[in-house]
Amino acid sequence: MSILIKGGRVIDPVNDIDQVMDILIEDGKIAKVAKSIKAQKAGVIDAKGKWVMPGLVDMHVHLRDPGQTEKEDVESGSAAAAAGGYTSIVAMPNTKPVIDNIDEYNYVMNKAESLSKIHIYQTGCVTKDMKGEELSDIREMAAQGCIAFSEDGKSVMNAAVMLRALRVLKDLELPFLDHCEDINLRANGVVNADDNALRLNLPGIKNIVEDVMISRDGMLAASVGAKVHFCHCSTAQSVNIIKFAKEHGAGFSAEVTPHHLILTSDDIPEGHNMVDFKMNPPLRTKKDVEALRQGLRDGIIDCIATDHAPHTLGDKNESMKNAPFGIVGLETALSLIYTELVKKEILTPSGMVEKMSVNPAKILGIEAGSLSVGSVADVVVFDPDAEWIVDKHKFKSKSRNTPFNKRKLLGRVISTIAAGETVYWEEDGK
Predict the structure, then answer these.
(1) Beta partners for 412?
(2) Is 51:349 a contact under the CB 8 Å cutoff?
(3) Nearest CA among 390, 381, 417, 345 for reference residue 50
(4) Is the CB of residue 196 less than 8 Å from the CB of residue 266?
(5) For the chain, give me the number of helices (H) and strands (E)?
(6) Following DSSP, what letter does each residue of 277-324 receive, concatenated?
(7) How far apart are CA 324 and CA 64, in angstroms?
(8) Would you name the residues annotated as active-site residues?
(9) From the CA atom positions of the chain, what is the Rg in Å?
(10) Taking the CB of the first residue and of the last residue of the chain, which one, N or C, has fewer CB atoms within 10 A?
C-alpha cells in the first residue's frame, strides 16, 4: 500500500531539507518529496505539527539472541527498536554462543528475516569464542554479508591478535566496533572512581581504563589503515584522543550513549534502584559529560548509539557488585536526546538526525539515513510537543532495566515506517 505523509516538518540533512513538505511512499521506496502531493489511493498520515525524519540507525544493540532470550530476542528487540523510531539496528556478537562462525551468524539473520519488521545487522566476533586468542571465521562471515565486527563486552587484550584482526578487516574494508576497556585496570570496579564511589562504598573504575585502550587500538589501526569505530565513549580524555586520531587517520569514528550524555555519577541513588545505574563504561563526572557534549557538537564524536543491554529483573536483583552491567535504551533514546540536547540547544534538530541516522549509516555503509527519492522508505514521524513519563512496564522490550523510569520527557515517536511498512503506531504503545 502507498503511504502519503502530509504536512510534516521534513528534516533530511543529506538533501539539505528542513521545511514543511509531503512525502509519498510507494512499493517500499520514497517516491516523491514535495510541497503538496496528491495520491488518491494512498493511506494518509497527518503529520501537521510533527517532524518527519529518516528512520534512526543504532550501531550498538544487544539482542541476547541466541542463548539469553529471557532477556531479549530478535522479535522483542526489533519491536522495542521500532517503538523508539529505529529502522536499522546492529546486534553485538557477545551472545551465548557467541557469533564467531557462519552457522551462528545465519541463525540470527534467518530469525531476523522471519520475525523482524525492521532491518537487523549482525556483527561477528574477531576471535573464536571471544577469548582473544585465535581469529574467528572473519572472512567467511563477511562473505555471508556481515558488515562489521566487534568483541563488544570486552577488548581484545592481546595487541598482536588485535593487529592481525585489523589487518584482515582492512583487507575486507569493514569496520571494527571497538569496546575499549583494559580489563586488568578495571579489576573489580563497578562505578566511576570519584567521590561517589566513596559515598556508595563501591570499587571504582578509572578513566584510564578506557583511555589507554582507545590510544592503543587507535595506533594499531593507524599502522595498517584499518577502520575503527570507538564504542560508548565516556571520558573527557577519550574526546581528545579521538580528535588526535582523526587528525592522523581517516578511518576513525566514535559514538556516545544518551546516558553518558545526560547522567553523571552524582545521579546514582542509594538503595535498591542503584543497580539500574550500573553500566559499562560507568557514569562519569560533569566534566566528562560536558566534554562529550562538546565533542558531539564539534563532530569529534560522530553518532549516538544506545548500547541497549537488557537484563531480567532477577539479573538486576543483586547487589551493585554482583549485578550485571547495562541498561535498555531503544525506547527512550530519541526523546532523551530531544529533551536534553535539542531543547537545550546543544544539538540542532538537523544535528540530531545526523548523529542518530545519517552518520551511523555512513559508518556502516548501509542504505539508510536519508529521505532521497528512490531510497528505501525508512521513516520516523515524531511529535516534538508530546509530553510523557517513562513507564518501564510499558516497554516493548522484555527487560525493564532503565535509570530513566518515571522521568518526564518531551517528544515522542508517533509512527515508524520500515521499507514502506508501518511497524509502529503510537496507539500501540498506550
Answers:
(1) 383
(2) yes
(3) 381
(4) yes
(5) 14, 18
(6) G--SSPP--HHHHHHHHHHHHHTSS-EE---B----HHHHSS-TTTSP
(7) 13
(8) 307
(9) 21
(10) C
Q: Which residue carries 529502522 as its cell? A: 87
Compute CA distances 41 → 1, 26, 125, 261, 318, whole Å: 8, 11, 47, 44, 55
Taking a C-beta distance cutoff of 8 angstroms, is the pair 329, 311 a contact?
A: no
Cα-based angle 187, 192, 194 (whole degrees, multiple of 5): 115
Question: Could you say which DSSP state residue 426 is in?
Answer: G
Q: Strand pairing of 204-205 and 191-192?
A: parallel
State the average pLDDT over residues 36-64. Answer: 96
The single residue listed with the C-alpha cell 564467531 is 100
User: Per-residue DSSP letters for 131-194?
Assistant: -SSSB-SHHHHHHTT---EE-TTS----HHHHHHHHHHHHHHT--EEE----HHHHTT--EESS
**391 SS3 class:** coil
Q: What is the pLDDT of residues 160-169, one digit of tens each?
A: 999 999 999 9
The grid cell for 109 is 539473520
Using CA atoms of 156, 73, 86, 317 in order, give the dihedral in degrees to the nearest 10: -80
Rounded alpha-carbon distances, angstroms, from residue 276 to 23, 66, 268, 402: 40, 24, 9, 6
Q: Can you say how many angstroms the Cα of residue 77 is from the centroid of all Cα atoms in its chain?
A: 12
Residue partners of 179: CB distance under 8 A and separation at least 6: 150, 151, 152, 153, 154, 155, 231, 232
Q: What residues are paired with 57 via a beta bridge?
A: 88
- Cell numbers for 120: 537487523
Find, among 77, 76, 128, the residue nearest to 100 by Cα: 128
| 62-67-69 Cα angle (round to 5) | 65
**Statement: the pTM of the whole predicted model exceeds 0.85:** yes
What cell numbers appear for 48 in the block?
501537521
Who contacts 98 (Cβ-Cβ below 8 Å, separation ≥6)? 104, 125, 129, 130
Q: CB–CB of 324/372 below 8 Å? A: no
pLDDT at 429: 44
Overall residue count recorded for the chain in this entry: 430
> Residue 144 corresponds to which cell in the numbers above?
555471508
Tell me the pLDDT tens digit for each residue of 265-322. 999 999 889 999 999 999 999 999 999 999 999 999 999 999 999 999 999 999 999 9
Number of other CB atoms surrounding residue 247 within 10 Å: 10
Q: Which grid coordinates belong to 123?
A: 556483527
C-alpha cell at 310: 537488557
Question: 219 CB contacts (<8 Å, ≥6 apart)?
Answer: none
Query: Is the Cβ–Cβ distance between 90 and 60 less than 8 Å?
Result: yes
